[in-house]
Amino acid sequence: MVRKTDLPQPIVAMNIGSSCVRAIAADWDERHNTFHILGCETSSRHQSVEKGIPTNSSDVGFVLNETWKKLNNRVGRGELKNIFVCLGGRSLQSVHVEAHRQQRRTEIKQKLLNEMIRECSEKIEARTPAAGVLTVLPERWEVDEQDYDEKPLGVIGRDITLYATAFVMRKEYCTKMDDTIKRAGLAIFSREVVPDACITALTTDEERESGCAVIDMGAQTTTLTIYNGNQFQLTKVVPLGGYHVSHDIETLGISAVNAEKLKCKWGTLSLKPTDVDKGLRIPAAREGEEPLIVTLGNLSSIIACRVNEILMPLLAEVEKTEGIGAIR
């Protein structure tokens, strides 16, 4: 992630989700160590993203551009140019990779660091031709056997090693992502990935050092990220999410709209004994049919069944990893 102190102002973050495209603009207030939100816009009209991957680049590109324009109008600060795009998807994985350079003992410059980051991408794509690299995140640098958490720009050294995490997905998906952004006609300041964004936003420095896990449930995918010792340990994506919970509720015989409302307002995995038999009168999906009575107990059972299917393999991965002290 780009450090807050390096952020241009204002910034725009855009997320390409399976259920909607969302854009938010903010200023970074360094004095109070917080973001000042300028505006937020959402468009849920597109039907061209499946499990985080655009299936029609033209359609999604149009929605991205439309959402950006609506945000411009809401914020009223002139054209918003500094856009961060958050990416994810069903085949997303994290891969550890290294790059090593040896030079005459001299000052380390940005050009060399950029070349080493690019070398990490090339290594992965060379050994796995079907893989495309979304981004490479440096974890630490080593210069003449001395560790640096930040890039060693200006350090005098001879042997330089980069230890990094690369986020990869199938190359055809990367191509679709790039084509979508290109068709949107937007100037992208930075491409971020969902696991890095979630870890940065939801955990503390202490949790990242001691070990933590973040589970992000989207509409059609759920992503587990395990982080320990200030390094990504695992990224696992399950192709199931909130949409599938809503669809299960819909099979009771109610409309998709009412199933979503029911999930959001009354959905819970645990109930008080007195609430189990409480009934909700819901219009039937088919016109002319009698309304249905859905008990909270039945609703909870439907939700629990699907959520367990989604979370059990992810929690099993967490249990196999030592030192995880926090789950978000």
H-E string: EEEEEHEEHEEEHEHHEEEHHEEHE
Percentage of residues in DSSP E strands: 35-45%
Write down the Rg: 23 Å
What is the mean pLDDT?
87
Name the strands of the widest sheet in spatial order: 3-2-1-6-11
The best one-word shape is: globular
Structural class: alpha+beta
The low-confidence runs, each spanning 5 or more residues with pLDDT under 50, are 1-5
Determine the oligomeric state from the structure: single chain
Sheet of most strands: 5 strands, mixed
Give a verbal description of the structure.
The longest helix has 25 residues, at 296-320. This protein has helices at 57-75, 110-127, 171-184, 194-202, 205-210, 242-250, 256-266, 296-320, and strands at residues 11-16, 21-29, 34-43, 49-50, 53-54, 83-87, 93-107, 131-143, 146-148, 156-170, 188-193, 212-217, 222-228, 231-238, 279-282, 292-295, 326-327. It starts with 10 loop residues before the first strand and ends with a strand. β4 and β5 form a beta hairpin. By secondary structure, it is an alpha+beta fold. The chain has a five-stranded mixed β-sheet. A four-stranded antiparallel β-sheet has the order 7-10-8-9, with helices on one face. The protein has eight helices and 17 strands. Residues 1-5 have low confidence and may be disordered.
Summary of the model, kept short:
This protein has 8 helices and 17 strands. It has helices spanning 57-75, 110-127, 171-184, 194-202, 205-210, 242-250, 256-266, 296-320, and strands spanning 11-16, 21-29, 34-43, 49-50, 53-54, 83-87, 93-107, 131-143, 146-148, 156-170, 188-193, 212-217, 222-228, 231-238, 279-282, 292-295, 326-327.
